[in-house]
Design a protein that fits this description.
about 625 residues; alpha/beta; Rossmann fold; four-stranded parallel β-sheet; 21 helices; about 15% strand
Length: about 625
């Protein structure tokens, strides 16, 4: 810890010779660091997550740059440091000479309380700069339940919660990620939502904002009403010139009899619909080969290499396969070279190959063989967390090998062939069982299976299939190993998501999920099989938030003001607080979560375009309805 502090103080003193503003900022940062060391960090859990100074951290001299960007992850350090996209953007933006890119994560409740009691701001880990002092503050929205964490970070960072309260003296607050596919629930708090790939969009947004901001400084406009008006004009320019930028303040929601019916532009120079930013040449986009190495144990302590973006399949429940189109790949050489350089720069002993469906990578066998050739002598394990169940699975366990006696992770989602046709995930049980058999023969000691319950048209026989599949795998393991392996059936509660064919469907009720979970536990016979069902209240809240329009923002703010923090962590989740906030905001939970949309109904996220458009989704939904009818008639 003393080494980290010494490095920071040397960096601060080195910067003192610049403008009065920089000198004031850096003196404040030094004082903040001193306060944290003496009075705050000794009183919080895992203080190392608030120190910065990690291996491969990038600190830039503020006198050599024009702009400062803070990437803000609205969850804890242990989650944010495991997110590969965050590492990609951190590396990308710091490769630009004129930009410094730093990081901030949502603090644990004890740290928030300590900062508020001492009247200290939330800060970046690189230079201990308060969030309000950045030019751009970029949030990565990965999970709807983290909505209140966004407000916590804004408030602690001394940034006004509402976009229309900010002036030119405040950072541009932008947000991207999966939850930006329905931006309306967070619309009042975010200046610009960014759709599509972050690599081509983030540098353009930052550069244009900085240019326009500098122009404002030259004419002396920054504060008060004039500053707010100038900021509004600059955001309109961003929205007009960058097709992937959505500025909610220029779009007014329209309601009829309490039902959302559309968004109306308040000015004609912003686009009616928003186009996603898309990387056409993934191979030409450098991988982060000096990733940050955390001080504390994180969810994923390993090297992550994205081998492919997009998915060749079109599962109806999956939002990622829609919003990540088209399919793009990296070459075997690029992947292996990046993995080796990352290993040399980190010392991690595991490499994880990332994509939506890694075994569908077109050169999969060649890639695995080359990775084994290079990394087996180094004692580095190869991990593939997203294997598709197909005929190739029969040989994957043998191909990959397993010297560490780990588990095989698979996502069959459902267990019966007719339901697979319905959700468009065409896999075969015999491929799955033979793949598991091969895994047990190659030192795998367990299998983790991911299922969903509450899908459209689900029947008791579909729940039976979940248990039958898990117990069949357990019996196969006993045949091969002489004892039952550990088989975990992890069952999530289906939430219909924006930009999927199921976006028109309502979510199942609390009572249904309670019954289904009991049914699954009662059905299980083999003790080595474990059934883990996701928390129902959390799933219902996720459903309400993911389907909401702009009126949901009031509930989010009410929940936050009443104490909602880190709700993605079960020990902090208080569902009743949310249900009360939704009620106080005038939102009927039953309608918001469970009522289906009509196929011709305007949806809150329709202004965001996707690769194939709404017409494709409508056709898939109609086909799904026909298949559901056929399933019902077959019983």
């Amino acid at each position: 810890m003393r080494i980290v502090q010494q490095e920071l103080f040397v960096s601060v003193h080195r910067l003192f010779s610049f403008s009065p503003f920089l000198e004031h900022l850096l003196m404040f940062n030094q004082q903040l660091k001193t306060q944290l060391d003496r009075h705050i960090l000794p009183n919080v859990i895992t203080p190392a997550q608030y120190l910065g100074g990690e291996h491969n951290i990038i600190r830039k001299d503020y006198s050599d740059i024009r702009g400062k960007l803070c990437l803000a992850f609205p969850d804890t350090y242990t989650i944010g440091m495991s997110h590969h996209g965050f590492q990609i953007l951190y590396t990308l933006m710091n490769s630009l000479d004129e930009w410094a890119c730093e990081r901030a994560y949502a603090p644990w409740i004890d740290m928030e309380q300590q900062l508020r009691a001492a009247n200290l701001p939330l800060y970046s880990l690189e230079n201990f700069t308060p969030l309000c002092e950045f030019d751009v503050l970029g949030f990565s929205l990965q999970y709807e339940i983290c909505s209140t964490n966004v407000l916590t970070m804004l408030d602690l960072g001394n940034v006004p919660l509402h976009s229309d309260e900010r002036t030119m003296d405040h950072p541009l607050v932008i947000a991207g990620g999966p939850c930006a596919q329905n931006p309306e629930p967070l619309a009042p708090f975010i200046d610009i939502f960014v759709t599509g790939d972050g690599e081509p969009s983030l540098p353009r947004i930052c550069e244009l904002w900085l240019k326009l901001k500098e122009d404002c400084k030259s004419i002396g406009i920054s504060q008060g009403r004039a500053g707010q008006q100038q900021r509004e004009e600059i955001m309109a320019t961003l929205a007009a010139e960058l097709p992937f930028c959505y500025a909610p303040r220029f779009y007014e929601p329209e309601y009829q009899d309490g039902t959302f019916v559309g968004l109306n532009r308040s000015r004609t120079d912003v686009p009616e619909t928003i186009e996603p930013a898309v990387i056409s040449d993934l191979e030409g986009m450098p991988l982060p080969t000096k990733p940050l190495v955390p001080f504390v144990e994180c969810v994923h302590d390993r090297i992550a290499i994205e081998i492919m973006r997009g998915c060749p399949w079109q599962c109806r429940f999956c939002q990622s396969t829609v919003i990540k189109r088209p399919l793009r790949i990296r070459s075997v050489k690029t992947i292996v070279d990046a993995a080796l350089e990352s290993y040399r720069n980190t010392g991690f002993n595991e490499i994880s190959l990332l994509s939506l469906s890694s075994s569908d990578y077109p050169h999969f066998e060649e890639l695995i063989l080359e990775l084994k050739r290079v990394f087996k002598p180094l004692g580095v394990n190869i991990s593939i967390p997203s294997l598709r169940v197909n005929d190739q699975l029969r040989s994957i366990a043998e191909l990959i090998g397993n010297d560490r006696r780990s588990s095989l992770t698979l996502a069959p989602e459902v267990a019966r062939d007719d339901m697979r046709e319905q959700i468009r995930k065409k896999i075969k049980n015999e491929d799955l069982y033979e793949g598991c058999r091969t895994a047990f023969r190659n030192n795998y000691t367990g299998v983790k299976l991911y299922f969903m319950c509450g899908l459209p048209g689900e029947r008791p026989v579909d729940l039976d299939g979940i248990i039958d599949m898990a117990e069949t795998i357990a019996r196969i393991g006993k045949e091969e190993m002489g004892r039952y392996p550990k088989v975990t059936a992890s069952v999530s509660n289906f939430v219909p998501k924006a930009h999927t064919p199921y976006q028109w469907n309502g979510m199942q009720t609390r009572e249904y999920f309670q019954w289904a979970h009991r049914y699954l536990h009662q059905k299980k016979q083999i003790r080595a099989v474990k059934v883990k069902c996701h928390d129902i209240e959390t799933s219902l809240l996720e459903g309400v938030l993911s389907r909401g329009d702009r009126r949901m923002a009031k509930a989010i703010e009410l929940a936050w003001r009443s104490g909602s923090r880190l709700d993605g962590w079960m020990e902090h989740m208080d569902a009743q607080r949310w249900w009360q906030a939704l009620s106080d905001a005038g939102i009927d939970v039953e309608t918001a979560a469970h009522t289906a949309f009509e196929i011709n109904e305007r949806l809150p996220w329709d202004h965001l375009n996707i690769k194939y458009g709404r017409t494709f989704l409508e056709k898939e939904q109609s086909r799904s309805v026909l298949q559901l009818d056929a399933m019902a008639n077959a019983i």
